[in-house]
Write a structure and sequence with these properties.
With about 280 residues, the chain is of the alpha/beta class. It folds into 3 domains: about 70 residues, no CATH class; about 80 residues, Winged helix-like DNA-binding domain superfamily/Winged helix DNA-binding domain (Arc Repressor Mutant, subunit A), CATH 1.10.10.10; about 110 residues, no CATH class. The protein is built from 11 helices and 11 strands. Strands 1-2-3-4-5 form a 5-stranded mixed sheet, with no helix packed on it. Strands 9-11-8-10 form a 4-stranded mixed sheet, with helices on one face. Helix 10 packs antiparallel against helix 11. The longest helix has 15 residues. The protein is flat, with a radius of gyration of 21 Å.
């Protein structure tokens, strides 16, 4: 079973086709592809789907073979989604709000203009994610019915919302940072078995007003220390998509997916595997 068309199939689709081959042909098979993203590679291994990437990796779980000469991570040639399109995708996954909906209807939920949402529809249509139909004078977007499939299709187009980091030491027992959702390794520790840092990580919308209170409510410090706070500034409001103490798991994944520490990557896989789709 090979795939040489532009773009990647989702791991769920690959697994479905693989199982169909095994059932219909009554013989072993494997998935052949030229390149694969790190996330999809992990998913195939999680599902124990045999695959080969010529010159890179041979994975045959039934024979206990996992040979890796080198893993060439795919450089995404795709244009990343705009901020508004990314928020639309994550909101739809988290709330299972998959359409059909109009630009005006989604604009009211996300706080963007109808024109901005119309451009988001354009981006999704160009990426082949969801279906856009015109009914009368309205455009209707329907996203894939399976939230996991939507995440896998959209992931190559998504980017980390993290823009910059500030380390602060609160000067009072009660402080403004307590109202911000937990993020980074602190949040990851709550969704996996990884140990959290000795300081808290919290996230806020990118806003320079925090700098103005330096020396009144907190002190800015050069490096994190026990009891301090790593304050992450995001390109969109982390609290908007949050459903609990932490930022949403999808944005959290995006902020940490570039980390090279294997413990973090393992914890991210654990977190996503435990998500109730």
């Amino acid at each position: 079973m090979s795939h040489k068309a532009p773009g990647e199939k989702t791991p769920a689709a690959i697994q479905k086709h693989y199982e169909a081959v095994i059932k219909n042909r009554k013989e072993a098979g494997l998935y052949l592809c030229d390149t694969i993203t790190a996330y999809n590679r992990k998913r195939l291994i999680d599902h124990k789907v045999p695959f080969v990437i010529p010159g890179s990796q041979l994975y045959l779980p039934d024979l206990g073979i996992d040979l890796r000469e080198h893993f060439r991570q795919v450089r995404q040639s795709r244009v990343q989604f705009s901020l508004s399109t990314q928020v639309l995708i994550l909101y739809s996954i988290i709330n299972r709000y998959l359409g059909p909906f109009t630009p005006a209807g989604m604009a009211g939920k996300l706080g963007y203009s109808s024109m901005t949402m119309s451009r988001a529809f354009d981006e999704l249509e160009m990426a082949g994610i969801g279906k856009v139909k015109t009914g009368g004078r309205e455009r209707l977007l329907t996203l894939p019915a399976d939230p996991r499939e939507l995440w896998e299709l959209a992931l190559p187009y998504l980017k980390s919302p993290l823009r910059r980091i500030l380390y602060v030491r609160p000067l009072h027992k009660r402080h403004v940072f307590e109202k911000m959702p937990l993020a980074g390794l602190t949040a990851l520790a709550m969704h996996s078995m990884i140990a959290g840092p000795e300081y808290q990580v919290r996230a806020a919308r990118n806003d320079t007003r925090f700098i103005n209170n330096n020396g009144i409510e907190y002190e800015i410090i050069p490096l994190p220390e026990p009891g301090a706070i790593e304050l992450q500034f995001w390109s969109y409001s982390p609290g908007f998509l949050s459903t609990g103490e932490t930022v949403d798991v999808f944005s959290l994944y995006l902020t940490l997916s570039g980390e090279t520490d294997e413990r973090i990557q393992k914890a991210l896989s654990e977190m996503m595997a435990g998500y109730k789709w």
